[in-house]
Amino acid sequence: MTDPRPVIAAIRDGRGLDGPGAALIAQGLADGSVSDAQAGAFAMAVLTRGTGQAGRVALTRAMRDSGHVLQWDLPGPVVDKHSTGGIGDTVSLVLAPLLAARGCFVPMISGRGLGHTGGTLDKLEAIPGYLCDQPEEDFRRIVRKIGCAIVAATGDVAPADRRLYAIRDESGTVESIDLITASILSKKLAAGLDALVLDVKAGSGAILKKSDSAGRLAQALVETANGAGCRTTAFITDMDQPLARSAGNALEVHEAIRCLQGEPGALRELTLALAAECLTLAGHSEEGLAATLDSGAAAEAFGRMVAAQGGPRDLLERPGAHLARAPVIVPVPAPQGRVGRIDVTALGHAVLALGGGRVRAGEVIDHRVGLDRMAKLGDSVGADAPLAMVHAADDTAAQVAIAAVQAAYTLGEGQAGPLIRDRITA
After folding, report:
1. Are strands 79-83 and 195-202 parallel, antiparallel or unpaired?
2. CA 157 to CA 140: how far, in whole Å?
3. Distance (Å, whole) CA 140 – CA 135
4. Longest C-alpha distance within the chain, in Å?
5. Is the whole model's pTM more than 0.85, yes or no?
């Protein structure tokens, strides 16, 4: 069968999606034999009728297999994590080298940010010389030698998803759980993983604000990844406040380095929880994980990874000498009180307005700008304790950001909920 129309009609009529149909659609998306009109009709049929669980697994596998799938022969498990995105979420920069220090191999294929959440590659590109675009031969060499590498996807990784991703936006089908699941997992599973842990955010700064929506996505991701042969668990984690105290690329690298050097906080807590889950899924002991972080072994692995990918060899010892600093740094004043509520998405938009993110793919960003020392729920603020520090390119941008940050915070009675709201297993 080479005609996609019967496959689309089967989904439209509630008969689901089978393996051959999924393969036809995925290959047609990759090679262009499925037209834009047919791709849009497929996406709308999936949104309105669903694929069924078996169909979701079939679509994920087919989209994974539409391009190059890595295979590894390494003396340890190949693992990774994926986050649905939030503010101050710098976990990847700490987790990858921490797992490498524990004998795992982490071939992390990441993305650049779009919208109010930051991208892992944008953070790393704040490091002078760091090359995210690595040839596969070099990617493999770095992973084998150091235990981790964080790179951009090449054009032959899940090409069906790249096409369908654009079609979903144009056809109004972005919110389909089936399509979101296949999109996320096809790219991750193309890395040849043995195990995967997922961090699905819920709260005011998340893509999915409600815990029940995040739970449905997490369940679909876990069931589908396991069905596709990759041991997977998901955590639903809090995004009603920023994870770390910084938002902005160079600022978040600074905070990741401090975490690698032993600084306490939510970033450390969540990283340890996700790393422990990765080790458990891979059949390794999680005992002593915090000690591994505190010993400096993870920091050493991070430094070696940065150097291997073109960055400075002394970044950990002299981050201030390498990470660019914004010319204007000013506090965000607040009346005396306690933080009762935070519009975390608004904080992300404040960073966007400063130039620290992008609305459209390909836009140039300013790695220097952003927010740090952000107040969290329950914190006291006032004359000696600002809501945050703004790092801006000029005074005008700083004043706009100050107003935006002030509008994002509400003073009153409030306290943080649990960092990890739920754990979803197969």
Report:
1. parallel
2. 15
3. 9
4. 71
5. yes
